[in-house]
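User: My advisor, Dr. K., asked me to get a structural model of this assembly before our group meeting. I'm new to this, so sorry if the format is off. These are the inputs:
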Amino acid sequence: MSRTNIIALLIFGAILGYFLTFGADSTRKFKAGVYQLLAPFLTGGSGLRKQITSVRTGLKSLDQLERENTALQVENRALRATNQSLRDIEHEVNRLRHALNYRERSVFKLIAAEIVARDSSTWWRTATINRGKSDGIETDMPVVTDVGLVGKTTTVSDTISIVLLVSDENCKIAASVEGTREQGIVSGERVTTGLNPLLDLNFLSKQADLKPGQKVYTSGIGGVFPSGLLVGVVKIFRVRELDGQAQLTPAVDLSHLDDVFVVTGRK
Amino acid sequence: MIFFLLLLVLVLVAQIAEFFIPALPWLYHAHVYIVPVIVFYGAMALPFPLMLALALYAGLLLDALTVQVIGGKVEISMGYSILLYGVLAGFMHGLRPLFVRGRWEVHCILSGICTSLIVLAQYLMITFRRGSLIFTPEIWWQIAVPGITAMAIAPILFWFLQWMGRMTGYSTLSERSDFE
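Assistant: The format is fine. Below is the predicted structure of the whole assembly, which you can bring to the meeting.
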C-alpha cells in the first residue's frame, strides 16, 4: 500500500472516529443542519413532483379522450386540460377551506404545514414538513389532521422538520379505547407491506374484548400527545399469553397526506 | 478531479431524488436506491484516496438524512453508514483491475449485492436496538428488492458515468495496460 493510501486511510479513520462519538444531541443538530441546507431542494422537488403528477393526470385523460372520440380529439384535448386544471384548483380550494375550518374549531393551537417529502429509507416511517423552528415548532410536538393523529416531530431545523409517523415502530402513543377503561400503548409495526399499515395496541387486559369499529384516542399520558386525538379504529382483538392486543386501522390515510397541523399547545 | 466533483454532486442529487421516488407497491413497498450504485461505480473508477472520500461523503449524507433520533436515542449512530460504505467500496475497489480491463458486469451484480447488504446491515442494527429478531418473507423482499433494482439500473448508470468520465477527460482505460 502506497504512502498516500495509508495517509488517506488514516484521515478516513480519524473522521469516522469523530462521527462515531456523536451523541443524540449532536446527531440531531447535525441532521437539522443538513436538512436546513437541503430544504430548498426538498421543497423545490416537492413542487416539481406535483407538477409532473398534474401533467401525467392530464395526459391520462387525453388518452381516454382519444379512444372515445377521434374526430373531436384536438378540441377535446384543450377542453379537458382546462377542465382538469380547474378541477385541481377547486380541489385545492376545498381542501384549504376544510383545513381552515378545522384550525378555527380546534381546541389546539395549530400551525399548518405541507408534506414536502416522504421517507426515503426502508426501515423508518417519516415525512418532511415545510415548517421549522422559525414557525415555532419544536421537537416532540404532535402532528395531526382534521381526521386524527399523524405522528410527532423528531428533528427540527429552521424551516423544515421531520415527522415520525404513527406507523413507525418507534412512535409509541399512550391510548385509551372509547367506551371502556382499557388503556394501552399504540405503536407501528417494524415491517409493513403497505403505505397505510396497521397499528398495534398492546398491553390491554385479556378481558378487554374489543369489538371492530371501536375508536382509540390518545390518553394524554406521557406528555407528548394531548388527550382526545383519534389514533385509529379497532380492526381485530386477540388475547395473548400475558395481555390483550388489538390491531388498529390508522384514522389518517398516511399514504395520501398533503396538509397537516402541528399542535403547539391548547387555545 | 472534475469527475470526482461531479460524482459528489450526483450523489447529492440522487440522495434527494430518493425522497421523491415512491416505494414499489407491487414489490412489498421496497425502496429504490441509486446512491449506492454511484458510490460503487466511484469505488471502481477512482483511485483509493478519492474512493474513501466518496464513501465518507455518501455515508455522512445517508446518516444525516435517514437515521432517526427519537427522544434521547439514536438508532444507528452517526458514522456507521460511513464505515459500511467504506468497507463495501473498499471491497469493490479491490476488484478494480477487472473493471479497468472492461469487465463491468461483475460490478453490476456486486453493486446489487452490496446495496442489499447495506439495507440488511441497517435492519440488523435497528433490530439490535429494538430487540426481537424478526425475519418474515416481507423483510427479505424489502432487503432483496433494493439490490435487484440496483443491479437493474447499474448498467445504464455505469454507462452514463463512463460517458461522463470521458467528457470530463477522466478515463480508467488509460490504466488498462497496467493490469493486462
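One thing worth pointing out at the meeting: The first strand of chain B starts at residue 69 and ends at 70.

User: Perfect, thanks a lot.
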